Amino acid sequence: MRYILFYCFLLITSMMGAQHILPEKERARVVDEILAERFDVLLPQLMDNAGMDMWIVISREYNEDPVLRTMLPATWLNARRRTILLFYRDNSKNTMEKLAVARYNVGKNIASAWNKEEEPDQWKRLMQLIEERDPEKIGLNYSMDHNIADGLDKTDYDEFMRYLPAKYKKRVGSAEQLAVRWIETRTEREMVIFNQLVSITHNIIKEAFSEAVITPGITTTSEVEWWMRQKVTDLGLETWFHPTVDIQRSNEELVSHLYSFSGRPEDMVILPGDLLHCDFGISYLRLNTDCQELAYVLRPEETRPPEFLVEALKKGNKVQDFLTMNMKKGLTGNQILASALSQSKADGLQPAIYTHPLGLYGHSAGTTIGMWDSQGGVMKDDGDNYPLNPNTVYAIELNATVNIPEWKRDIRIMLEEAGFYGPEGFRYVNGRQTELLLIPRIQTHQGN
Predict the structure, then answer these.
(1) For 13-27, what is the mean pLDDT?
(2) How many CA atoms lie within 13 A of 300 on its CB side?
(3) Whole-number Å distance between alpha carbons of 200 and 204
(4) Residues 203, 206, 211, 214: is their CA dihedral positive or negative?
(5) pLDDT (tens digit, 9 = 90+) per residue, 90-104?
(6) Which of 1, 6, 191, 349 has the CA that lies 20 to 30 A from 302?
(7) Contact by Cβ (8 Å): 88, 53
């Protein structure tokens, strides 16, 4: 009931356009509550599914394992000295131990299991804990396929294996499947919060792409980018990448996709008739958004966007539909990509799909569905062998190239929206763009 009421509150405030952002102390409370639920409810399930009864995460201060960063309490901004976390799952007893071979408790969730006065050697204490529990399978964070699951550095790996008793060496393996599932899986409460994050993201874009920020003939693309960056800072939030704004217009040829992200000219003056595109994401409560939307700058005689741009956006939405209808549990990213591209092309579209996992990181761990420069499928080390799992979030990122006879050129409809894949299938976290934002907004005037 608590989650339902909270969800209703967020829906109402989202409809009102309000920005309800917590102060730091309240954020810390929410982060720690979510973390406790993930440790107590989610982690045992993930360890059982992975067939792994012991997971050891080792990291040092300022060189944190990406997984460990997501396990630290809100008041820990970094690991301390060498921090070693040990998770032991006894399925037969339905118990879950969360221990820290460290000088301190790691928040309220993970208890310190090392008294340096009794055993000065941290590694020896770790080995004692392992031998006392006699695990069948020990997982460490190393991986060729998933960068976020590859956080164990060589020094710590070498030391671990040097101290580990011989009989356990064959029980050590990669924890990549467990690590990725931990990173990619969202709880019910996280998804309630994710809705608010995406709503905030959409609202910032709407304000940026409006006459409140843009004066055609004066405002530049770089000024809009920095306005967005400052807006996020003023709200007490963070961006996980610098926003970008670019222009497509009738007197310029379509350039490569890379142009939108690197090498594009800065400080382009925004003019009537321009098609604007932005790429923007925020970080809040340890979750991240990633969104691309489009706006049209009305000419003085126009009250709506040209029909050819309206139809072009519909083609981008169609590519989205072909992608999301192919997102099915157990399929790999390459399989989903191949089907979505094939069906889009059969419908006369010119698609490119490069969808990535989204959540605790912006470019997160999980199922990768294409890359902008790998439309034939991604290689093994980019996670092509990883299946689509439920309760995961993706940046549905793609484009459709559309020929515009009126402009005598092609344009690219680039879209990106947060989408959730759950037990009942796919849904957008907080809707998607189906109409161009207009600059200025058209106001309906009433009079006598």
Answers:
(1) 71
(2) 1
(3) 6
(4) positive
(5) 988 999 999 999 888
(6) 349
(7) yes
Which ranges in 17-121 belong to alpha helices (H)? 24-37, 43-50, 66-69
**Residue 340 Cα distances to 14, 320, 337, 348, 370, angstroms:** 32, 9, 5, 13, 11
Q: Give 381's Cβ-side CA count (13 Å radius).
A: 4
R_g of the chain computed on alpha carbons? 24
Contact 69, 57 (CB under 8 A): no
| 171 alpha carbon, distance to own chain's centre | 33
The pTM of this model reads 0.90
Residues 276 and 242: beta-carbon distance below 8 Å: no
Ordered DSSP codes for 376-414: T---GGGTTTPBP-SSEEEEEEEEEEEEEGGGTEEEEEE
Instruction: Report the chain's terminal Cα–Cα distance, integer Å.
Output: 49
Residue 5 has pLDDT above 50, yes or no: no
Q: What is the mean pLDDT of residues 101-128?
A: 92
pLDDT tens sequence across 124-135: 999 999 999 999
Q: How many helices (H) and strands (E) in the chain?
A: 12, 18
User: Which helix (H) or strand (E) covers residue 182, if one does?
Assistant: helix 176-184
Give the residue from 417, 411, 446, 408 showing the smallest Cα distance to 296. Answer: 411
Token pair for residue 356? Answer: 């990535």
Share of the chain above pLDDT 70, in %: 91
Angstrom distance (rounded) from CA 290 to CA 241: 9
Asked if 151 and 65 touch (Cβ cutoff 8 Å), the reply is yes
> How confident is residue 260, by pLDDT bands cut at 50, 70 and 90?
low
Q: Whole-angstrom Cα distance, residue 194 to residue 186?
A: 9
Angle at 294 between CA 292 and CA 299, to 5 degrees: 160
Q: Which among 414, 397, 427 is positioned nearest to 194, based on CA atoms?
A: 427
* CA 100 vs CA 68, 109, 110: distances in Å: 12, 10, 6
Least Cα distance to 46 among 92, 85, 91 occurs for: 91
Phi, psi at 421, each rounded to 5°: -110, 115
**Peptide linkage before 300 cis (omega within 30 of 0):** no
Residues recorded for the chain? 448
The β-bridge partners of 87 are 55, 98
406 and 250 Cβ atoms separated by less than 8 Å: yes
